[in-house]
Amino acid sequence: MNNINFDCVSVARASRIVLHNISFTVQKGECVALYGPNGAGKTTLLNLINGLLFAYKGKVSIGDIILTPKTALSVRLITGYVPQNFEVDTKIPILAKTVVLSGCYGKIGLFNYPTQQHLNKTKKIMGLLEIEHIFDRPFGQISGGEKQKTLIARAMMQEPEILLLDEPFSSISESSKWKILEIIKNWKKEKNITLFLVSHEKQIIEKLCNKIFYLEEGTIVSQESIDGNL
Amino acid sequence: MEIYNFMLYSWAGALLTGIACALVGVIVVTMGISFIGVCMSHAAFAGALAGIILGINPVLCAFVFCFIVAGILGPISDKGNLKPDTSLGIIFSSSLGLSFLFLPLIPGSKSEGLRFLWGNILTISNADLLILCAVTIVTIGFVIALFKEIQILIFNRVLAIASGIPAKSIYYLILFLCGATITSSIKAVGGLLVFALIVNPAAAAYQLTYDLKKMFLISSIFGAASGCLGLLVAFWLNIPAGAPIALCSVIIFIIATIFSPKKRMVYEMRKA
Q: Which residues in chain A land under pLDDT 50?
């Protein structure tokens, strides 16, 4: 249903072309890894899918929706996003549970409040990712790994149809990493989510993805399918 | 009876100004855009002076100037071509330049113009109080109705946008609300000192809690306390109320910082 289609897409930032003439189609339920050196345009490509950025040339479509500033809101509601290098003020007045809960704020809609059911679901997801002990802890006070797990839990709370993960395991310990990877893999399979993963770790990519896009200087230089997964 | 009314108006003015400014303050302080308060207050002052020169209601003119500044600040910060402090600095210096330009153009005595710079809560009228009351109610309503959106916007604007929240519209509303709060408070505490009531109670509350709901509540209490204590000192020493109100808010901030549990937690975390 929600195939993602890039048609000759180019993006410029600060007068520099960061993505050039990108074209591909990803079917619903596929899992694509974006692999390449720093500055290759991986994060920019993710930001085009959830409408945080827009192409100056070409078009991006999600199912029947062509992404424009006017249509982006409806796409964002079905797209979960875990950003990389997430830093906040250590004193910020927000608790870890609120960060997870905020994943469903877009779907709840304006002027509505989260219910006890939402809170129960928050607890359940945090339990699944083994971060229930930080439920009432200030987000600024938890470790880097716990922050990343909280942001993954936040994306799961959103119940997205498309999931964008930008270096989601960079601060998570080795033992936790594989557990969470397994959780994401099962969850993805169960809900038939389309997934994009930016990672420099080939092992993770091979475990989770069925396709790799190699990016270099803003273009997809090659694509590869991985068998045996999903 | 008249003395009773003037006293009542002053107390109500101090209380409402304290609450409205403190609520808006929580949003701008936690979003790291507190300099907006300075920008808006000077725009309001320039607007009030323009109103006096043109013979239009100065408060109405101050509202218009603040809304223009809010309308300019929003798109500038969205485009991201300039850093927020740079764009705020440019708008601040423009407002200040306009104020200095308008002040000598006021015919006759400049005291009416300067009244908007220093403020005088003792001269607050029934109409001023009604405006202040309306703005305070709108501010409280805004915070209650959009609490969850404000919460995520404070946390991270990009994540707020990414999760399908109309973050841009809410951000613009915050700017307009900030302008409205400052304009309605300018007659009571003045264009220079209103910034103290925006930043200090919120900054004090920031030292005491990790819960945003509690922060709004504590900040309102600190804002109202600053207004009322400042007014009490002003009556006692027979001086204009703006300065003691601002200084009371500073003292509250210092006390909150000294007893801040957050400071201890961060220290313990670093030690560990």
A: 228-230
Mean pLDDT of B141-161: 93
> Which residue ranges make up each domain of chain A?
1-78+161-172+181-224, 87-159
Residue B265: count of CB within 10 angstroms of its CB: 16
Q: For residue B69, how many C-alpha atoms fall within 13 Å in the half-sphere facing its CB?
A: 38
Q: Which CATH class is domain A1-78+161-172+181-224?
A: alpha beta
Nearest to B205 by CA among A91, A140, A90: A91
Whole-number Å distance between alpha carbons of B218 and B212: 10
Closest CA to B117 of B180, B61, B45, B60: B45
CATH dotted code for B2-192:
1.10.3470.10
Give tens-digit pLDDT for B212-225. Answer: 999 999 999 999 99
Q: Does B165 touch chain A (CB under 8 A)?
A: yes
Mean pLDDT of B18-26: 95
Q: Is the pLDDT of residue B192 over 80?
A: no
Domain boundaries, chain B: 2-192
What predicted TM-score, i.e. pTM, was given to this entire model?
Answer: 0.87
Q: Which residues of B touch A91 (CB under 8 A)?
A: 206-207, 210, 262, 266
> Which among A191, A200, A183 has a CA at the least distance from the CA of A84?
A200
Residue B223 is encoded by which pair of tokens? 């804002």
ipTM tops 0.85:
yes
Quick one: which H or E segment has residue B167? Answer: helix B167-206
Question: With an 8 Å Cβ cutoff, are A50 and B206 in contact?
Answer: no
Q: What would the pLDDT profile of B82-111 be if each residue is shown by its tens digit?
A: 676 787 888 889 988 998 899 888 887 777
Q: B152, A90: Cβ pair inside 8 Å?
A: no
Task: Tell me what percent of chain B is helix, strand and coil, each rounded to the nearest 5.
Answer: 85, 0, 15
Cβ contact, residue pair B154, A92, below 8 Å: yes
